[in-house]
């Protein structure tokens, strides 16, 4: 393309009689520069339309030249380099808030010159009424009993039975209006007036549970291929556009380029270019500031092609100056590009309020006013209310409809004040001239002939899907790099576990002579499968952490769901390959599996596919459950199902008929069969005979374990695992495609329970504080209770002034440099005088907030415009000298003065802190149905599952196989509920820890009382959980009904559940975040499995690892369960390879190594583990701090 442009330029130069225009000839005059640009444009005009729309002229500067000579070059907008884009942005937007308006005006002028009308959107709504059925009073609180009632009543409502007593709440009442294009519309109203509901209704994002009655309509006026039409008309008129405007329009219109230059432009105008490569951050990690986070959200809205914006409270967390700058930027975009905008703000500053063209005032769900801003004060004056001097109009509008604040604005003091209700205001507005005009406009149907025939034909995704997929791959790779610690941690973890497994099943200790030897090798294979299954558990937290951002981008049509899931799956395949390689290299030879290359690679393939299948399982769980607590529970439930029915805990022929389907749908069935067949069909097993001297040893082992005796099962298993991996990832994609974000059940965090108790704004000592209180007009309220927002105490407007009073004591600029510190003066006149004497600083306008004005005139943009540094100006001022002298004077303590001393660090003794924290935790847990109700549901489901799968196996004790099945039942019963307790408590503790860091920093309480309260509050909930779980399992499995045996079963189960819960709390306290805690915990789940005494009995554990058996809590749980139930049973059983029938008591002691009289030490150890994990949690919480803010 560049060669064709050059040839065209040469021909154009020849036709003009100019030789070698673009050669070595250089001119410094403006005329020569214009000639060169004109020739370039003439050359571009001769290109085919397709090429012309993708090529433009860019002005560059010769960096080597002393005079920075400019030269023009033609560029393909699809191939703009990073330096080109940055140079373009830096040149056009040096001072963003000023240069942006000039740029947009040039862009609009280009369109207007050729008579093109920009596309517009007008939004109409008529008789919009929105209602909700809700509970009132205590019934509305999200307590455990209320949540259970809600679930029960919802289930009955499916069958048409309605027991719930709900109240119909009307949120919006008969609202009508028009949001017009090219006008800024501000939505005002006190809290709970229905602003957010109106915005959601107009955006089509209302909750499905709300009842909506309305006529919503969006009408369009559009032109197709605007840029093509613009280029054609300019060519016909002989108009050459400005190079910068042409480059911007082409670069942001061509597919695949828009996301780049327009993103850079948005970052600059929102002031986010300074932090473009900074992580957003969260409660634990320092990232961008709160104000920058709000601007990121705003940028996400305007960076796309959407011309209709509904924005809710974008000013929260921003100072008034920044809010003004952002709204000013949006005003320029709306006015000059014919956009449509409706924005709600809570009491905007006067200068921000004046940027809007129209106002919608909502109160109690009714529209009090909807029309031009310039007439709103007139309307209320016609109703008898006047906005006072030095009172912002927005503040006046927020309060004039309030029964509490309305009287102060009554204008005619000669007449008795009468409260005007919201309904009366709304009726008066309908008779006001603005209301009459609005009613007439709404009554007239929109003229659809003004809409273009193809106006409603829009592409769902403006960027080609392959480009979206590439961008998603780039994003996924970037996230993997940023989370490299997690993947390195997982790899190191699997190396450590592989070394442990290899040394437990060491080849020098293993034989290949008997069926028992084969069983040990199968145990090693089974452990490998379990480890690599648990390896995918980390996908839960990592996926759920990203879902909120995904749902937001999906709903805004940033990309289709499959472009998110495909890179997520494919880029983790190499990581899984590395982990599989590590596992196989460390374990295969060391354990001594079949020494054949083909069997090594088959086992490698199977382990790799098990990892892929496991990752798919946990991704699907995260996509369906969508919250961490529910997903952990769902994950544990799925694990319990696939483990119990995988054929290794309960052999296939022992599975009840009603659960046989579960055997075939469990992925572990295929992995277990394939791994065992691959090993036991090796020549070293098939060349020997079993104990019956007839059957091949390998086949005998397979028969004993009820595994299919067909070597094709290696490939059957591999194919099934591959199919599961693909299917599960497809289902994960569908879950993200069709399920909406989970609205988690309400949880009462400790965050707000101790902050709003009789807070008082008292008159502090010192004239300066008195001046600040006078400045914000809080003289009469200095002893008032602040109270709860929207409930009691100060009004919203008064709270805002209180915030200003607290914060505006010192004026600083970015970087922490002071630019003013001194007295305010009456009506802030001293501060105003200080800045107004600086040459070039504009005078403050009438009704302008002094605080906002100070921030505006001292901004970075103002410094660039004035060519000065306000910090330097302050340091060289007489005011700074006086302050320095005052600091020096006050730094010398007077004679006889003593340092401040407090007898205790905290206001309450340790016992008082503990009682307060325990009360807070109790209320928090009682109102946490998403935690406690979910784990109770899981426990019930697990109990019923274990009971039905191991139905009456307690009565079957005729052989060692029967005993193994019973032990598997007890082992599974406790292990999976314990793991669920551990997993579900982690997100709770992780959230509470961030609150604890903040409250400890505020000196509210110390770590030990807080940690002990968290420990003690779990006990009653675990006690209830254990009670019904034990009753169900004990009865359905049919253990022996004696008081002592039932008590010991209950005791062991209770403390096992409790130590698992405290273990989960402890893992959070020693790790930086929940994701690492989940990975750390999962690693020890595997070790708990290995040394529990189930996979490998205690006597078979190598002597160098027996110490870990004694520090493995699950080993003591299994010990206690077996001994309490079977340690004293003298019934005989059959054991393969033994001619005599030993008693169960003898077999338990000699095969498993369990002493029947050892229950007391077992009980002590279980209590000890519980206390140890609780102590470690408290100690680590006290000594470790992972917050990097």
UniProtKB/TrEMBL annotation:
The keyword Heme does not apply. The chain crosses the membrane at residues 485-506, 518-538, 569-591, 603-622, 629-650, 713-739, 933-951, 963-983, 1019-1039, 1046-1065, 1077-1096, 1108-1127, 1158-1180. It is a multi-pass membrane protein. Its main location: membrane. Coiled coil: none annotated. It holds the Pfam family ABC_trans_N. InterPro entries: AAA+_ATPase, ABC2_TM, ABC_trans_N, ABC_transporter-like_ATP-bd, ABCG_dom, P-loop_NTPase, PDR_assoc. This is ABC transporter domain-containing protein. The lineage of its organism: Eukaryota, Viridiplantae, Streptophyta, Embryophyta, Tracheophyta.
């Amino acid at each position: 393309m560049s060669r064709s442009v050059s040839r065209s330029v040469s021909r154009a130069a020849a036709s003009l009689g100019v030789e070698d225009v673009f050669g070595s000839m250089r001119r410094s005059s403006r005329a020569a520069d214009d000639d060169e640009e004109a020739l370039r444009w003439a050359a571009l005009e001769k290109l085919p339309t397709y090429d012309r729309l993708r090529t433009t002229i860019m002005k560059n500067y010769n960096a080597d030249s002393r005079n920075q000579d400019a030269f023009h070059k033609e560029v393909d907008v699809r191939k703009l380099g990073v330096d080109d884009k940055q140079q373009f942005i830096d040149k056009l937007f040096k001072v963003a808030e000023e240069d942006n308006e000039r740029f947009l005006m040039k862009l609009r002028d280009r369109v207007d010159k050729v008579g093109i009308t920009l596309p517009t959107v007008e939004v109409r709504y008529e008789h919009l009424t929105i209602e909700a059925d809700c509970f009132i009073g205590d019934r509305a609180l999200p307590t455990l009993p209320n949540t259970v009632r809600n679930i029960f009543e919802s289930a009955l409502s499916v069958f048409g039975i309605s027991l719930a007593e709900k109240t119909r709440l009307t949120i919006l009442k008969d609202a009508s209006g028009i949001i017009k294009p090219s006008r800024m519309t501000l939505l005002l109203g006190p809290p709970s007036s229905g602003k957010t509901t109106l915005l959601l209704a107009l955006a089509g994002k209302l909750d499905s549970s709300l009842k909506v009655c309305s006529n919503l309509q969006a009408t369009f006026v559009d032109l197709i291929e605007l840029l093509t039409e613009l280029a054609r008309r300019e060519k016909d008129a002989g108009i050459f556009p400005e190079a910068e405007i042409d480059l911007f329009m082409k670069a942001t219109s061509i597919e695949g380029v828009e996301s780049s230059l327009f993103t850079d432009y948005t970052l600059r105008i929102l002031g986010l270019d300074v932090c473009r490569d900074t992580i957003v951050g969260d409660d634990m990690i320092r990232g961008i500031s709160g104000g920058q986070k709000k601007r990121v959200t705003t940028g996400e809205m305007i960076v796309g092609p959407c011309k209709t914006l509904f924005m809710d409270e974008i000013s929260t967390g921003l100072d008034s100056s920044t809010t003004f700058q952002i709204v000013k930027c949006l005003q320029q975009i709306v006015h000059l590009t014919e956009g449509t905008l409706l924005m709600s703000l809570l009491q905007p500053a006067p200068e921000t309020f004046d940027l809007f063209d129209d106002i919608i005032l909502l109160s109690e769900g009714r529209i009090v006013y909807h029309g031009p801003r310039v007439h709103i004060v007139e309307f209320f004056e016609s109703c008898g209310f006047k906005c006072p001097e030095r009172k912002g109009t927005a503040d006046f509008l927020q309060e004039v409809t309030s029964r509490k604040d309305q009287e102060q604005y009554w204008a005619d003091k000669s007449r008795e004040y009468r409260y005007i209700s919201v309904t009366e205001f709304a009726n008066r507005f309908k008779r006001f001239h603005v209301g009459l005009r609005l009613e007439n406009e709404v009554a007239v149907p929109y003229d659809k002939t003004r809409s273009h025939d193809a106006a409603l034909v829009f592409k769902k995704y403006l960027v080609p899907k392959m480009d979206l997929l590439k961008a998603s791959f780039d994003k996924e790779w970037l996230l993997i790099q940023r989370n490299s610690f997690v993947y390195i941690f997982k790899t190191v973890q699997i190396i450590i576990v592989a070394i442990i497994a290899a040394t437990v099943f060491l080849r020098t200790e293993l034989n290949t002579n008997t069926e028992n030897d084969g069983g040990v090798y199968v145990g090693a294979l089974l452990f490998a499968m379990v480890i690599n299954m648990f390896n995918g558990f980390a996908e839960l937290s990592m996926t759920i952490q990203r879902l909120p951002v995904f749902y937001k981008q999906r709903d805004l049509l940033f990309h289709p769901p499959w472009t998110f899931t495909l890179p997520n799956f494919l880029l983790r395949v190499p990581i899984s390959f590395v982990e599989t390689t590590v596992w196989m290299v460390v374990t295969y030879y060391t354990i001594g599996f079949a020494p054949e290359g083909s069997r090594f690679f088959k086992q490698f393939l199977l382990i790799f596919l098990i990892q892929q299948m496991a990752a798919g399982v946990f991704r699907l769980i995260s996509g369906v459950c969508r919250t961490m607590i529910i997903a952990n529970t769902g994950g544990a439930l799925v694990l319990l199902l696939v483990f119990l029915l995988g054929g290794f805990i309960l052999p296939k022929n022992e599975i009840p008929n009603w659960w046989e389907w579960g055997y075939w749908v469990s992925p572990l069935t295929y992995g277990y069969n394939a791994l065992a067949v691959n090993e036991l069909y090796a020549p070293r097993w098939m060349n020997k005979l079993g104990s019956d001297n007839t059957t091949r040893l390998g086949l005998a082992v397979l028969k004993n374990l009820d595994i299919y005796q067909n070597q094709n099962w290696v490939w059957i298993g591999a194919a099934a695992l591959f199919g599961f991996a693909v299917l599960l990832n497809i289902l994960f994609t569908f879950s993200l495609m069709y399920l909406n974000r989970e609205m988690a059940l309400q949880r009462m965090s400790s965050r707000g329970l101790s902050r709003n108790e009789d807070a008082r704004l008292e008159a502090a000592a010192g004239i300066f504080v008195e001046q600040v209180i006078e400045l914000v007009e809080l003289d009469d309220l200095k002893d008032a209770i602040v109270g709860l927002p929207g409930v009691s105490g100060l009004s919203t407007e008064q709270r805002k002034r209180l915030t200003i009073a607290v914060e505006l004591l010192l004026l600083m600029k970015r970087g922490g440099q002071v630019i003013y510190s001194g007295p305010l003066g009456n009506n802030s006149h001293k501060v105003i005088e200080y800045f107004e004497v600086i040459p070039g600083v504009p005078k403050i306008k009438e009704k302008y907030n002094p605080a906002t004005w100070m921030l505006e005139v001292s901004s970075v943009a103002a410094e660039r415009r004035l060519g000065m540094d306000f910090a330097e100006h302050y340091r060289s001022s007489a005011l700074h000298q006086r302050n320095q002298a005052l600091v020096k004077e006050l730094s010398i303590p007077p004679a006889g003065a003593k340092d401040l001393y407090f007898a205790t660090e905290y206001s309450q003794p340790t016992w008082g802190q503990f009682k307060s924290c325990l009360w807070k935790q109790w209320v928090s847990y009682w109102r946490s149905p998403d935690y406690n109700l979910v784990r109770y549901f899981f426990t019930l489901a697990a109990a019923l599952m274990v009971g039905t799968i191991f139905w009456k196996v307690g009565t079957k004790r005729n052989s060692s196989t029967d005993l193994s099945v019973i032990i598997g039942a007890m082992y599974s019963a406790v292990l999976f509920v314990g793991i669920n307790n551990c997993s579900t408590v982690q997100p709770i503790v992780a959230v509470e820890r961030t609150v604890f860091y903040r409250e400890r920093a505020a000196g509210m309480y110390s770590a030990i009382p807080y940690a002990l309260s968290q420990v003690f509050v779990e006990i009653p909930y675990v006690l209830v959980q254990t009670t019904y779980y034990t009753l169900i399992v004990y009865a359905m499995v049919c253990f022996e009904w004696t008081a002592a045996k039932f008590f010991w079963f209950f005791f062991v189960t209770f403390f096992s559940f409790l130590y698992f819960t405290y273990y989960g709390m402890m893992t959070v306290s020693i790790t930086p975040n929940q994701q690492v805690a989940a990975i750390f915990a999962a690693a020890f789940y595997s070790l708990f499995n290995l040394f529990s005494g189930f996979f490998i009995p205690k006597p078979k554990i190598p002597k160098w690892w027996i110490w870990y058996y004694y520090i493995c809590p699950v080993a003591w749980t299994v010990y206690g369960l077996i001994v309490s139930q079977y340690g004293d049973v003298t019934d005989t059983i059959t054991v393969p390879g033994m001619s005599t029938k030993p008693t169960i008591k003898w077999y338990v002691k000699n095969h498993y190594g369990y002493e029947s009289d050892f229950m007391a030490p077992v009980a002590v150890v279980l209590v000890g583990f519980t206390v140890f994990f609780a102590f470690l949690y408290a100690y680590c919480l006290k000594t470790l701090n992972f917050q990097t803010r």
